[in-house]
Design a protein that fits this description.
Distance between the termini: 73 Å
Helix content: 55-70%
Strand content: under 5%
CATH superfamily of the largest domain: Toll/interleukin-1 receptor homology (TIR) domain
Number of strands: 6
Structural class: mainly alpha
CATH topology of the largest domain: Rossmann fold
Number of domains: 4
CATH class of the largest domain: Alpha Beta
Radius of gyration: 29 Å
Number of helices: 29
Length: 622
């Protein structure tokens, strides 16, 4: 019998859910009916969003097949897949999954028939069918990764964009609607990458330039969606809205790094439109005032613009149209902001209800933490007005502590994960109940979070004293080192480091170096990874050349290296190698006796070996 194993096909949602998604996560979609409800709403406008509608059908079929408790419900997956194939007999995802379904139930004849059809389509390499299939695949991966800082789905959006780009344009064809849908999904993927890349504003100069290029590419991509005549209304409206969000994120990023970096050279089309964030939001609303997603996204931006009354109205309209985790969560944020401005307890109660509604639809760290925070604020309100009413306050504080405990467990929902604020809130709870022992334990828990806490800092770029105090608490206590040397160089000199320095020291002399672009620990935040590596290196090698410009990152690295040299190892820590004649930076001039120069293109390697091996020997015996 022909089977999926006989067909070279990377598609099919059933296989993806088999391998990559926990069963509990799939069951949650059935229990909350979130996907079903969205699918029912899409029925009303399936002709306006044809690709999205079919994509949601194939995804819901896979969810039912994998997680439904009874055979009657599980059988509905077959119905959905056959509906998709009735509308699009070349739908690769539906063909792959219906073949899988019949193989599972041992319906040999049906499985063979659909497998043969799938094989033919795969051999024909139809660009439209492939564009749809890659979009399907990206959608289901993104659905189950939506709370993760991952982009494994994005490569499939790139492939969808590539294949739809090969389909001949025809403004009279409904395929242009799907072109708009695919381009919008691609733009959304770019947006999420930019938002997460710039969130903490700790980037070096090269990374800042790359982020500006990404910003320009993302804005241009949304403008492409707008320019496709048959793009769905909500895609066009949301494109303007996401451009507004990008502009806000850019302003916030510039504020954090203390300088305004140019980006309009990468999106000159947008510069010609002369639109600010408010203008983009107004454009979006003028295109589609009824779509629930449009309404809640604009409402969320209105919170940042302090247009709170209008935000509340839009959230209410949105939630009437469609139950939404995003709507409830951000409405909770709105009411918290209203409370901060008025201290009216009714806003606290509204915020509490919104966050509770949000985590009944989906569990994220942020919702539990914010719900707990509201309980904490309620308890403080009670104690400030009636100190004798301690029982009511204790009950609320107990609820808050339970929420915080639940929040810090949800580390797999890291897109809305800020444990620092949660630990601070939890500590305030414990102080109100005079639980000193609990506070000590909480602090140990926060230390155990280590890298997670470091990688979700909300403050501006930390000073080297802040970082030293945090990192050195653990690294200074250890007499051992992870690395023999740490290399500081500009991007232009990395080639020399890789081709010359590393082979000499690592291959010939069996030393262990640290290169940030090569050795950074996965999941560890950039700045903390660098500082930790420097503190755990016996010495620092600084590569000097005319290319060596003291960028923001190099300033940081030098600050840490020189502080450590003066503080701990004044005789050994910093070594400079000048590979081309240049001025020695002011910061390094006090250490010029440990400078090795390149003469006529040749480094005195023996002097370097002698210095390195002498220092290591002294360090090991000290």
């Amino acid at each position: 019998m022909a089977s999926l194993d006989d067909v070279e096909c990377e598609f099919g949602h059933f296989k993806i859910l088999d391998k990559d998604v926990p069963l509990d996560r799939i069951k949650n979609d059935i229990e909350t009916r979130s996907v079903y409800n969205k699918l029912e709403k899409l029925k009303e406008r399936c002709k306006l969003r044809p690709l999205y509608y079919q994509t949601m059908k194939t995804m819901y079929a896979a969810i039912l097949f994998k997680a439904a408790k009874d055979s009657e419900t599980k059988q509905e997956s077959e119905t959905y897949l056959l509906q998709v194939l009735k509308d699009d007999e070349e739908n690769i995802t539906a063909l792959a999954d219906i073949t899988y379904y019949y193989e599972h139930t041992l319906d040999h004849i049906k499985a063979k028939d659909y497998s043969r059809k799938l094989k033919k389509i795969m051999n024909d390499k139809c660009d439209l069918a492939l564009a749809r299939a890659y979009c399907d695949k990206a959608h289901i991966i993104r659905h189950f990764e939506q709370d993760k800082r991952q982009f494994t789905y994005f490569e499939f959006l790139e492939k969808a964009k590539y294949h739809i780009g090969k389909v001949k344009r025809n403004e009279d064809s409904d395929i242009e609607i799907e072109r708009g849908e695919i381009m919008f999904d691609y733009s959304l993927g770019l947006y999420r990458q930019y938002a997460q890349k710039t969130e903490f504003a700790i980037l070096d100069d090269t990374e800042i330039q790359h982020s500006n290029e990404l910003l320009g590419e993302t804005i241009n991509s949304f403008l492409d969606v707008i320019d496709i005549p048959k793009s769905p209304k909500d895609c066009k409206a949301l494109s303007y809205i996401f451009i507004a969000i990008l502009l806000r994120l850019k302003t916030s990023f510039d504020d954090k790094i203390g300088e305004s970096t140019p980006y309009l050279e990468y999106c000159k089309r947008f510069a010609d439109l002369n639109l600010d964030p408010c203008g983009c939001l107004a454009k979006g609303l003028s295109i589609d005032k009824t779509d629930a997603n449009v309404l809640r996204r604009v409402a969320s931006e209105y919170i940042h613009l302090d247009n709170l009354e209008e935000a509340e109205k839009l959230f209410e309209e949105s939630l009437k149209e469609e139950e939404s985790w995003f709507g409830h969560r951000h409405m909770g944020r709105l009411y918290l902001k209203m409370y901060e401005g008025s201290e009216d307890v009714k806003h606290l109660l509204s915020a509490k209800d919104s966050f509770k509604q949000a985590y009944t639809l989906k569990t994220t760290h942020a919702d539990y933490s914010d719900h707990g925070y509201v309980c904490l604020l309620q308890a403080k309100e009670i104690l400030s007005k009636n100190p004798r009413d301690s029982e009511a306050a204790k009950k609320l504080l107990g609820m808050a502590k339970l929420d915080f405990a639940e929040a810090v467990k949800l580390t797999d929902s890291d897109d809305y994960f800020n444990p620092i604020e949660t630990y601070k809130r939890w500590e305030r709870c414990l102080k109100l109940t005079d639980e000193d022992g609990g506070i000590q334990l909480l602090r140990r828990m926060s230390e155990d979070h280590g890298d997670t806490l470091a990688s979700h800092r909300q403050s501006n770029r930390p000073t080297y004293r802040q970082l030293i105090s945090e990192v050195s608490q653990t690294t200074h206590e250890s007499p051992t080192y992870k690395h023999d040397f740490y290399v500081i160089s500009c991007e232009y000199d990395q080639k020399w480091v890789i081709e010359n320095l590393i082979p000499k020291l690592e291959s010939e002399h069996n030393l262990k170096g640290y290169l940030h672009w090569r050795d950074r620990e996965v999941g560890k935040y950039n700045v903390y990874a660098r500082v930790d590596a420097m503190f755990n290196s016996r010495y620092i090698i600084v590569i000097l050349s005319p290319n060596f410009k003291v960028s923001s990152w190099i300033k940081y690295e030098l600050s840490f290296a020189l502080h450590d040299a003066i503080d701990r190892l004044p005789n050994y820590k910093v070594l400079q190698i000048m590979i081309e004649q240049c001025e020695v930076p002011n910061e390094l001039q006090p250490f010029s006796e440990r400078l090795i120069r390149c003469n006529d293109g040749v480094i005195d390697w023996q002097r370097l070996y002698d210095f390195v091996t002498t220092q290591i020997s002294q360090l090991k015996t000290s």
